[in-house]
Design brief:
With 461 residues, this protein is α/β, with parallel strands linked by helices. It has 16 helices and 14 strands.
Length: 461
């Protein structure tokens, strides 16, 4: 089991947690239709549903909140955020949005044409949804190892250039005008790409005139793995690696609620040669988000984000965060619980298909496993499998992704080693009696992003 790395901070403020009874939790999950998104937070003991906006801010960030300039136009906090984006990421121009999906909406509505192919190193739910709403067609170009939970390959976020070339050969360059590349790939289990792969992709795309736009939501965590695993960057700072990653792109979007270390916010950012896209997005942000100098964020939130972008470059913080994940991953692995390997950068992912191997994928094993983890221990996790993948718009059938996972997503600077140990103990106990767990069927299924609001009931008999 990996040794726990002490957190490089001390606790100033505490929030009480409430442990409930198994009977209470069973009634709660039934009322929520076996969907952990529909649980009330007051009924959750340890909340590992997501790392999006759930982290704790630093004393410097809270001090910045008190310096919020809430002017409707030209807030000084906007300019501070622009400076931070240029300093940390290297981009010249920035469009603020209320969060990442707001940025995705603006980008895809302005860039895509109907029928465009949108290659990604695995899909993310909202990214694919926005691409499809804008008329695009998602295609996966991630390496094959990413679809194998047991593979120990260290760069499961890498782009497979052979797959990209095959798309170009099939559809032509006129339809493959861009690729979307995400660091610390969420749906693959928080798996990074290597900087050498990003540079290979950049060189390939430059020759053909293909644009590269990155979802840099978890870029600092990916930078940590690059520093740890790629020898030529071992002596680089996290900030230097982050800037080098961004230099392989034309622009980006970010949900700042992750590696921005804030509770709300996002943005689009571009290099100077992308001025046309920048102007289009800046014009549209006024329609959908807010004026171009706040874009759906309060001044105080922009200030906290400006501070957070710099704080996330601290290697000691990143080592402690990844170390906490490795502690949880190691405890579960030692007990034989099937997991995604190696441990990722923002969560520990349980292989629900192997955990509940007596269930068919259309009985939603990951959805049921997340529900049962909550009943067992009060720990809230979430499904990343068949339910998240949704239905094929052409056939109406479930998409059946190769990965059927439960994500234990650890918020930043929130929980301690003891919380990780408690979580592991509950899942290990559940694993011992896994064969008694039934599958689920829908009682309500929304048309889009169904995993947020769907309801289920157990399959009995």
């Amino acid at each position: 089991m990996p040794r726990c790395i002490p957190e490089p901070y001390k606790i100033k403020v505490v929030e009480p947690l409430r442990m409930t009874t198994r009977e209470h939790r069973q009634s709660c999950i039934e009322a929520a239709g076996y969907n952990t998104f529909l649980l009330d937070s007051k009924d959750v003991f340890i909340d590992l549903l997501t790392d999006s906006g759930t982290g704790a801010m630093s004393d410097v960030q809270w001090a910045g909140m008190m310096r919020g300039d809430e002017a409707y136009a030209g807030s000084r906090n906007f300019y501070n955020l622009c400076d931070a984006v240029r300093d940390v990421l290297g981009y010249d121009m920035m469009v603020p949005t209320h969060q990442g999906r707001g940025a995705e909406h603006l980008f895809f509505q302005n860039f895509l044409r109907k029928g465009d192919i949108v290659p990604m190193n695995m899909y993310f739910t909202t990214t694919r949804q926005h691409a499809e709403l804008a008329g695009g067609i998602f295609k996966d170009i991630i390496v094959d190892e990413a679809h194998d939970p047991a593979s120990r390959f260290e760069w499961k976020g890498n782009v497979d250039l052979g797959k990209l070339q095959a798309l170009i050969d099939e559809y032509g360059l006129e339809r493959v005008r861009m690729i979307s590349m995400a660091p610390d790939v969420n749906m693959a289990g928080g798996q990074p790409f290597s900087l050498s792969n990003a540079k290979e992709v950049h060189a390939f795309c430059r020759k053909l005139g293909i644009k590269i736009y990155m979802d840099i939501t978890r870029i600092a965590e990916n930078a940590f793995f690059i520093k740890e695993r790629e020898q030529e960057y071992a002596e680089w700072s996290i900030k230097e690696i982050i800037r080098e990653i961004c230099a392989q792109s034309d622009g980006c979007w970010m949900s700042a609620k992750k590696d921005g270390l804030v509770n709300i916010g996002g943005f689009l950012a571009f290099f100077k040669h992308e001025d046309e896209m920048f102007q289009k997005c800046r014009s549209m942000v006024v329609v959908y988000e807010g004026l171009h100098t706040y874009g759906g964020m309060a001044g105080r939130d922009m200030e906290a984000l400006a501070v957070g972008l710099r704080e996330v470059c601290n290697n000691d913080y990143l080592a402690a965060r990844v170390g906490q994940l490795r502690l949880l991953h190691g405890m579960l692995d030692e007990a034989g619980v099937p997991l995604v390997h190696p441990c990722g950068g923002h969560g520990v992912f349980v292989d629900a298909r192997a955990f509940l191997d007596h269930l068919d994928q259309d009985e939603f094993p990951a959805q049921m496993l997340a529900a049962q983890i909550y009943v067992e221990s009060g720990v809230r996790s979430m499904e990343r499998g068949n339910v998240s993948a949704g239905r094929d718009p052409e056939t109406g059938e479930n998409r059946h992704p190769r990965l059927e996972l439960v994500r234990l997503t650890v918020p930043r600077r929130v929980y301690t080693q003891t919380h990780m140990e408690f979580t592991a103990e509950g899942i290990i106990e559940l694993y011992k009696r896994r064969e008694s767990i039934p599958g689920l069927r829908f009682t309500y299924e929304p048309e889009t992003l169904r995993f947020f609001q769907a309801r289920f009931e157990p399959i009995t008999g």
